[in-house]
Amino acid sequence: MEERAAAPPPRSQASYPSLPAGSQAKGTAKRPSAIVNKDAVARVQAQQAALKAKTMQSAAAVSPDDLQHLGEGLGEVVRTFRQAVSDVQNSVDPQMRTIQAEMDAAQKEIQQSLEAAKELPHVQEDRQKSA
Asked: 71 vs 44, 65, 75, 78, CA distance in Å?
């Protein structure tokens, strides 16, 4: 057993038939590189670099005038919003008061008819007892 473990296993060599002459591996030819318009690539890269530099400058440089204009714009937006809210409120409030008054009147009417309905059977019972 020790002899078997010490000796390497025998190699089995497969015998394959030889390949036909036309299918044998040919030398790999180098692929031609893509045709590139180097001037166009350089122009696009320059445009991208200019845009990137411009955005970096504009992001970093916020002047006080820009902040002033931003504040004025926000103030105008808030004023317009408040005015729109008050316009809606002024147009809706009278209608809401009218609806609320109608609901109160209807509720009072229902309450009175309920009270009248409760009192009506007592009156009939009194008439039957006296008759």
From this structure: 38, 10, 6, 11
Tokens at residue 102, please?
């109608």
Phi then psi dihedrals of residue 55, to 5 deg: -70, -35
8-21: buried (b, 16+ CB within 10 Å) or exposed (e) per residue?
eeeeeeeeeeeeee
pLDDT digits (tens, 9 = 90+) for 31-47: 666 677 888 889 999 99
pLDDT grade for 93, boundaries at 50, 70 and 90: confident
End-to-end CA distance of the chain: 131
Rounded CA separation 41/36 (Å): 8
The pair of three-digit structure tokens given for residue 44, joined into one six-digit string: 């696009």
